[in-house]
Fold this protein.
Amino acid sequence: MLTDPIADFLTRIRNAAMAGHRVVEIPASNLKKEMTKILFDQGYILSYKIIENKVQDVIKIALKYDKNSKESVIKNLERVSTPGLRQYRGAHEMPRVLNGLGIAIISTSKGVMTNKKARQENVGGEVLCYVY
């Protein structure tokens, strides 16, 4: 039983990137699927595939690496809001990650989105994580 499935999601990606793995498999949920889609749209992962099982679906993520230095494109994944201490921000208080170079993934009433899109949509929400 996991107490924080989002932290597990981020940790699996972080560990696979540090170990130099090409693919990582993660148990799926709707929130994790949306977070994976955002990582793909923002160019942090190469591709992803959702494998449907009878018990629980699995997200298979192909990690992206720099061609020259063989380093992962994802430098850091940082969990912000935890089950013990939720972090909420209003539309005008959205965090800027690395002065706009990174993204924050926000869970809003209009769905899961990046901090830039949340600012455009003028909605606030729970800050799930920072990616850069």
Remarks:
- The mean pLDDT is 95.
- Helices lie at 5-19, 30-41, 115-121.
- The two ends are 29 Å apart (CA to CA).
